[in-house]
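To whoever is on call:

I kicked off a structure prediction for a single chain this morning and the downstream step that reads the tokens threw a length-mismatch warning. I double-checked the sequence; it's 85 residues and nothing unusual in it as far as I can see. Pasting both halves so you can look.
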Amino acid sequence: MKTESISHFQRRVARAIAGLKGNSKPILLMKHGRGVAYLLSVNTFREMQERMKFLEGIFRGEQAIRGKRVLNHAQAKQKLKRWGK
């Protein structure tokens, strides 16, 4: 990840955005020495969204297991048969 002040970023915004195409690393924008925003490519953002969906699915599955909301193989097979009708 790259770190950059907002004032420096404002002076070269077009070049920074163009640089995102070849570099998948986000840019951390700083104001008064503190991070305020990330700038990242559309592809990087989409990849992050897909990873989040995947991880959320795993989390929901783990919650279902803990809550005993699971089916055995025969029950799952029966339920899938009903969906196929």
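Update from on-call: the warning came from a stale cache, not from the record. Cleared it. Sanity check on the structure: Helices lie at 6-11, 13-22, 42-66, 73-84.
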